Amino acid sequence: MKANFSPLLTQYLAELEKSAHKAGILDLACGSGRNGLYLVEQGLPVTFADKSRDALEAIGECLTADAYSSGRELAQLWPVDFELANSSPFTGKTFGAVLVYRYLHRPLMPGIKNCIAPGGMIIYETFTLGQREFGRPKRDEFLLKPGELASYFADWQILHSFEGVVPANNEAGAQAIAQLVAVKPEV
């Protein structure tokens, strides 16, 4: 795969493999699908979820390429608007792991936690308030406060937590992010 995927995926690949055996992996608000496509390449089942039908169609086209021929049956496309009022998109759904990158919709946090199977995991990375210094997004509803991401999963086993500034491909050459990798308690 040519697109850049998150280094957290290679770092926690063994844990993702274990979690995928529980109930597959959800790439939530997947956009181009760069992270989920990497996992399909690794032979893991991934549900690509996004409200953009164009993005899902592009992922579907990627999955027809020879590079994914051995894993395309592992992928599912789920067109869904996670921000639709009065909806419960996770009802009846269980995943062994959930990936969330560059997306924040706080009302989803309880649903995300509930849809992950016991012993499953979350890998979450998005922007913090410090991002205003480097570019978009700049609005509060899209930016995490200090310690906010870790607080949502404080009752889980935290494998990795980071908040700070990292190199990026933007005008400022940096971005302010929070990262979290956590495992849901078995019971």
Query: Rg to the nearest angstrom?
Result: 16 Å
What share of the residues does DSSP label as strand, in percent?
A: 25-35%
Q: Helical content, roughly?
A: 25-40%
* Total DSSP E strands: 7
What CATH calls the topology is Rossmann fold
Backbone shape: globular
Strand order of the largest sheet: 3-2-1-4-5-7-6
Structure, described:
The protein has about 190 residues and is an alpha/beta fold. It is about 25% helix and about 30% strand. The protein has one domain (about 5-185): Rossmann fold, CATH 3.40.50.150. A seven-stranded mixed beta sheet has the order 3-2-1-4-5-7-6. Strand 6 and strand 7 (about 175-185) form a beta hairpin. The N and C termini lie far apart (about 35 Å).
Task: Give a short synopsis of this structure.
With 187 residues, the protein is of the alpha/beta class. The chain has six helices and seven strands; from the N terminus they run ααβαβαββαβαββ. Helix content is 25%, strand content 29%.
Strand-helix topology:
Elements: H1 7-11, H2 13-23, E1 25-28, H3 34-41, E2 46-50, H4 53-63, E3 75-79, E4 95-101, H5 109-115, E5 116-127, H6 148-152, E6 157-167, E7 174-183
Parallel strand pairs: 1-2, 1-4, 2-3, 4-5
Antiparallel strand pairs: 5-7, 6-7
Main features:
187 residues, alpha/beta, Rossmann fold, 7-stranded mixed sheet, 6 helices, 7 strands, 25% helix
